[in-house]
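In this supplementary section we document a worked example of the pipeline. Step one takes a protein sequence of length 82 as its only input; no multiple sequence alignment statistics are reported here. Step two produces a three-dimensional model, which step three serialises into structure tokens for compact storage. The input and output of this example are shown verbatim.
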Amino acid sequence: MTKEAYELLVKETPPSTFWKEVAEERRKALENVLQKNEKLHKAIEAKDEEISKLQIENEELQGLAAGVQLAENRLAGLSRGV
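The serialised model returned by step three reads:
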């Protein structure tokens, strides 16, 4: 807090311009936070979509791995039988 701001706070009645300046600073800070929040929200949505796609891919690959394991077991059984 600047010395000027502090002095305005400790006066009995700060001028109306002080409160306008405080309100404007708060408005700018809020706008900044809202913009950051929007960016984070979009990033989370993108990550959620990526997670969903990766989960589907994982399920597909697990199915493929199970098929490969089955084929490997059959081949091993055929090799033992020869």
